[in-house]
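Cross-check.
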Amino acid sequence: MQKYNRFYNKIVIVPKLKSEPLGIVIVESGWGSMVPTVVLANMCPSGPAARCGHLNIGDQIISINGISLVGLPLSSCQTYIKTFFLKQSI
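Predicted model, tokenized:
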């Protein structure tokens, strides 16, 4: 998963168990955003995304497993994230 904020880009690997959800809620970044993508809106405190310690609420998610989320509708981004549900890391 690649995240973006206005200061830097960072690649984050989120280790998780197979069939374990990431434990995140995403929303669209909005019309005023420099990069039209999705934003991490909430995390389950016990979920893999929070446990990895490298993601924060408000981070923009640019890509997931090499697939760009830039310019895609929220539903497509959610589908890509759910596609990797059976992977052990994202």
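The chain has one domain: 2-86. The two ends are 6 Å apart (CA to CA). Passed to J.P. for a second look.
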